[in-house]
Design goal:
Helix content: under 10%
CATH topology: Porin
Number of strands: 10
Keywords: Signal
CATH class: Mainly Beta
Strand content: over 45%
Strand order of the largest sheet: 4-3-2-1-10-9
Order of helices and strands: HEEEEEEEEEE
Mean pLDDT: 81
Radius of gyration: 16 Å
Low-confidence stretches: 1-22
Largest sheet: 6 strands, antiparallel
Structural class: mainly beta
Length: 182
């Protein structure tokens, strides 16, 4: 479900965007790429019409930290359905994210937020002490009193309404080099 813990989400979001906490990338992280994955099970509908229906979407977040410490991030959504699978993407460069996606580094964390009407997706990747491994945590939250979060589908651009969402199957890996050079 979209977490009713909106205060917690709001605090996390505020902390992640606070200039005082926004630090440059650690030298051990520069020149490396991070790939995180997860599954979102949602109760959603498109276009504000019809009943809410269960849907499953796989997400991949790929990020590269440049030698200057800038974060380049791309989130890809994979959806099934009739026929062949469909995908959609959102990209950002640091806090200058296209649309509502922003990425930044704070200490040993890479934080990517996606804001939408009435809610937020927060992906927090925590690095181990020597930046050789990572874990991912994904939180979907909505504002207090908001029953439905609204946004646009990355797959087809249609108006999207999400009533509930669960995150599972999180994964994370780190490697040397730029994941976007391929």
């Amino acid at each position: 479900m979209l977490l009713a813990r909106a205060r917690w989400c709001s605090l996390l979001l505020a902390a992640s965007l606070s200039p005082a906490l926004a630090q440059g990338a650690a030298p051990q992280l520069r020149g490396k790429s991070v790939t995180a994955g997860w599954t979102e099970e949602r109760l959603q509908r498109l276009g504000g019409m019809g009943e809410f229906a269960p849907k499953s979407f796989s997400h991949t977040l790929s990020a590269y930290v440049s030698s200057e410490g800038r974060v380049f991030a791309r989130r890809t959504v994979y959806g099934g359905g009739r026929g062949r699978p469909k995908t959609g993407q959102a990209s950002s460069v640091g806090s200058d994210g296209a649309g509502s996606q922003q990425a930044r580094i704070s200490g040993r964390s890479l934080i990517v937020t996606t804001q939408f009407a009435g809610g937020v997706r927060l992906v927090r990747i925590e690095f181990n002490a020597d930046f050789s491994g990572c874990t991912a945590n994904v939180v979907l939250g909505r504002e207090n009193g908001t029953a439905i979060a609204r946004g646009r589908s990355l797959i087809n651009g249609a108006r999207l309404e999400i009533k509930e969402a669960h995150v599972s199957n999180t994964s994370c890996s780190i490697q040397a080099g730029n994941v976007f050079e391929h």
